[in-house]
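B., you asked whether I could sanity-check this one before it goes into the benchmark set. Here's the sequence:
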Amino acid sequence: GIIVMDPNKHGQPVQQRWLVVGGTQFMGRLLLEHLMKHTTHHVTVLNRGKTPSPWLTEYEAAGRATRLVCDRLNQRKRFVSLVSTSPRWDVVVDFVCFDKLQAVDAVQALVATETGGKGEGKLEQRDDTRVTSGNGARLGCGLYVFISTDSVYMACDRKIVEQQRPRLESDAVQPQTTKARRALKRRNGYQYGYGKGKLNCEKVFQMAYQQHGFPVVTLRLPDVIGPYDNLGSHLQLQRDVTAGKRLGTRVDGVPDSARHRISLLYAPDLPHAILAAQRAGPSVHGHVYHLGCLETPTVEEYTRLVGEAVLGDGSKVKVDPECEADIVSVDTGCLDVGLAQRELEWKPTSLTKAVGNTCRWNGVPGNAKYTDIMSADTSSSESSSSESSDSDGSSGSGDEGDVVVVTREERRGVVLGSSSKKPRVAAFSFGFENG
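And here's what the prediction gave me:
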């Protein structure tokens, strides 16, 4: 495999220390597989330990991975302690930060200031392993990648997000009045709550960057397809196309569904974007980037691409423009990914190739069964709406579209838990409105 070199003075690869929060499903699993295959890095995975992961056990046995078990929602002090007491992380990738309290915990764990130690003061004891920012704060990581979502636009001003153009990163502007916020909640309560929570996380991290130089890069993802899918919407569409069912193409709340364009991300392209953000260095810290395929189809065009992949002829797919589509999670349109292309020098896989690879992976019964089991509990906090190789890891040629048969142990009895307990108020506040 290709090794991403970060040579030391002797010309040997440096084994970086990565922390992945989440990491046993879908995009997190693909990231770990990419790092194991294409780098020499050691990866620590922190999550609730609910998902059977024999593949992760193999990495542990090889000395390439470590597992930490923590429910960050209900064990907040333990989370801060585990993240802060380790030597400095080169990269932290957070897949499962969903509200501002969780974001505050991450900042507490990874930022120490002269006025008072965060993380119960433990950061103050590890100065020799940490980087000092320009304002004197000591940072516990070289890069913090926050995985966000295009659902943030479901909590934003409709006058902006309904403009007939691709969404820009700067479009994430929340409405100023209570009346407008309530209207958004009535429109789609789940997506409004989910998007608002993610946007509040972005605000916490952005404020930490402005105040302390916290090295955050935020990646906003649209709906995601690819191997190890844990939500199952693409798999269901593929099954419906194969069965010859008539499929809805209407997007609820959109005046002209026939012209409404959507974005999709091929999951194996995400590791390349993360590595590209690390290579770009401090010049991209504090920035937000959209990711997604360059092609932005209508729902009908996407459905016919699936038909092309599984039937050999997209024109055979039966569509019903009067029936609502089941595959679209937001109604705010497609994303402009130009900023990530320019500043990260990131290149996504073509949508045609991404759909073809995904359909081939789903075509293996064991793989489809894996997705069925993982999608059985969509309320899990480890579920996310979010490779190939070249010499520098920046281009997605899609070699992870090869069929991967999921083991029987991974399919057996995977039922993820969830908790309704509300976390306590954080020890300090960043002082912004919930919006």
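One thing to flag: The chain has a mean pLDDT of 83. Otherwise nothing jumped out at me.
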